[in-house]
Amino acid sequence: MKFETRRTEPRWEWEKTKKVAVFAMDDKLSVPKSDVIGFIEELLGEFAIPLDMIDGNLKHSRGLLLIKEILSMSMKNDKINYEQFEKELRKVRNVGGLPYGIVILIDKGKYEFYNKPGQQPAIYGIGVEDGLVILRYTHKASVRHEFAHILGLNHHHPPKQGCIMNWECATSTFCDECKGKIQEMWEDKMKAREMT
Ligand SMILES: [Zn+2]
Ligand SMILES: [Zn+2]
Q1: Distance from residue 161's CA to the centre of ligand 2 (Å)
Q2: Is the entire prediction scored with pTM above 0.85?
Q3: Cα 124 to Cα 36, 171, 178, distances in angstroms
Q4: Cα(85) to centroid of ligand 2, in Å?
Q5: Is residue 89 part of a domain?
Q6: pLDDT (tens digit, 0 to 9) for every residue of the chain, 196 residues total?
Q7: How far is the CA of 22 from the centre of ligand 2 (A)?
């Protein structure tokens, strides 16, 4: 089988750290942080993806402070402007901060996302390939959906029934096409792990 998009080098800097840290910004979450870490570890296990999950609050207190700063700089009309957040995060990473993948858990009662007019509104959370997920809802389906964006999956256009990678994630399973894509994107790293 030939793949067009084989990756021999990490596409994103954060992947080199092989780490993803989960930071809870608030005590009140719809599902606790430890469960969220469990959901992601389960997903990584399904595809044998060699990324380590880390409790950011426990292990990266400096990172937690940086994220709180970025968050406060990214508020617009009392809502999170996630494009601004990404921009500020990039600045911090350019000088060596927060090099790993980041999952941020926020209280949905406290925060909403700012959506530009005409932009598809983010409700549950946002996830981008550049090592960032912000979750308002921390139930399994939204965790898997947003984390799949970090892994490199995009939405189905038009929506595909029975797959989690629709804009509205009504299921927690991936269709065969999405499964194939994840395997394809990560296969070199899986092989690298088998060799060590
Ligand atoms: Zn999405
Ligand atoms: Zn799919």
Answers
A1: 8
A2: yes
A3: 14, 14, 20
A4: 27
A5: yes
A6: 334 455 556 678 999 999 999 999 998 888 899 999 999 999 999 999 999 999 999 999 999 999 999 999 999 988 999 999 999 999 999 999 999 999 999 999 999 999 888 877 888 999 999 999 999 999 999 999 999 999 999 999 999 999 999 987 778 899 999 999 999 999 877 666 665 5
A7: 25
